[in-house]
Specification:
binds pyridoxal-5'-phosphate, Aspartate Aminotransferase, domain 2, alpha/beta, Aspartate Aminotransferase, domain 1, about 40% helix, 2 domains, 11 strands, globular
Length: about 400
């Protein structure tokens, strides 16, 4: 049996006629830049995520970049983030001439550890840290109540890297009151990616910034179009960070299916969890340990707390298991083999951090196929193949 890590063909087969119609409509309209599809998607994603404003941009990377530009991050500034994420989270900081500062991750959720953040901020006596970027890794929100509390204490803006987590929910607790918030709607800005492998993926690159703040939204809108208002009058320096109308049209078709896909991914994860529990692989010595990567909230029925952009195991002899799975036609991937603080492009800075949890995760985690169209038979084959490796 062949089980790919992700099967976009299966998705396309269901959507082909709707996608072709949507693309044709844009082609015929000749409104290739801005226009009704982009505005429509912005309104739909903002509403979906519980935000006041959505600004379509060219990628998830550019969403982060433009959000930091709007905050005025630059030379001499530092930005606090997690060492265990996709490179873009740190790349945008470096591109603006600022430096990343890291707080290690929580070993269960793989997200930034608020207690570690607190230590880093307390040590920042020169007050160089100007913003915080938590990442909702794999589709599960970071601990936003704690993070927003710490940010408020230090008067720092929070930019959520929600590239992997559109639609993931987080229970904001205030006394007895629980309010479910969606990824991206809690910080000053939330950044989405529509890269094809994300839960809401386009037919190319795309991204969006969401925000509750009208003034911030206006700044993002200016920056994505060279800071021009009116046309040819430039009050600030932005760039071409626009979202294509073609992407917006395709994404609007796919958005209608997103909750169903989230549900299917969640069901697939639950099936893996129970199959691994029954497999005898959990616990003990040299065997796979599926990590419970989602927190059990008291009222789990009220929302999706993990959208499973990735289903992650923490395992012994990870590289050996990866080779074994690939040899058996099972797609898998390492997200991410090198934590950010050890990346070569940091130069001598790469030597000054010790992030034991991120380093451990980078050596022990593996992503298994979790896409919505995955069948029970395929999942059984994945689990049986892993059992064969360890037992
Ligand atoms: C995908 C991703 C990005 C970048 O998004 P692009 O659309 O590929 O530019 C940023 N951060 C994280 C955590 C991501 O997974």
């Amino acid at each position: 049996m062949k089980v790919p890590l992700l099967d976009l063909q299966a998705q396309f087969a269901c959507l082909e006629s709707d996608l072709v119609d949507a693309v044709n409509q844009v082609l015929r309209s000749t409104r290739y830049i801005h226009g009704p599809e982009v505005v429509g998607l912005e309104q739909e994603i903002a509403a979906y995520s519980g935000a006041q404003h959505g600004i379509g941009v060219s990628s998830g990377t550019d969403a982060l970049l433009v959000a930091l530009m709007a905050l005025g991050i630059g030379e001499g500034d530092e930005v606090l983030t997690t060492p265990y994420t996709f490179f873009a989270t740190m790349g945008v900081v470096l591109r603006l001439g600022a430096r990343p500062v890291f707080a290690d991750i929580d070993p269960v959720s793989f997200n930034i550890d608020p207690e570690k953040m607190r230590e880093v901020l307390a040590a920042d006596t020169s007050k160089k840290i100007k913003a915080i970027i938590p990442v909702h890794l794999y589709g599960q929100c970071a601990d936003m109540t704690a993070i927003m509390g710490i940010a408020a204490e230090y008067g720092l803006p929070v930019v959520e890297d929600a590239a992997q987590a559109i639609g993931a929910e987080y229970p904001e607790v205030d006394g007895d009151q629980v309010t479910w918030k969606r990824a991206g709607s809690m910080g000053v800005a939330g950044c989405f990616s529509f890269f094809p492998s994300k839960n809401l993926g386009g037919i190319g690159d795309g991204g969006m910034v969401i925000t509750q703040d009208k003034e911030f939204a206006n700044t993002i809108e200016l920056l994505r179009n060279h800071g021009a208002y009116p046309k040819y009058y430039h009050s600030m320096i932005g760039g071409n960070f626009r979202l294509d109308a073609l992407q917006a049209a395709a994404l609007r078709v796919k958005l209608r299916h997103l909750d169903k896909w989230h549900r299917q991914r969640t069901e697939n994860a639950a099936l893996y969890n129970s199959m691994f529990t029954d497999s005898g692989l959990i616990g003990g010595e040299k065997i796979a340990i599926p990590t419970s990567v989602y927190k059990q909230f008291e009222d789990g029925s009220r929302g999706i707390s993990h959208i499973y952009n990735q289903y992650i195991l923490r395992v012994k002899d990870r590289d050996g298991l990866r080779d074994w799975l690939l040899k058996n036609d099972i797609g898998c991937e390492i997200y991410y083999p090198v934590p950010l603080h050890l990346q070569e492009c940091l130069g001598t800075d790469a030597k000054k951090w010790s992030m034991p949890e991120a380093e451990k995760a980078a050596n022990e985690t593996i992503a298994l196929p979790i896409y919505p169209e995955l069948t029970d038979e395929m999942q059984t084959y994945v689990v049986e193949t892993i059992k064969k490796y360890y037992l």
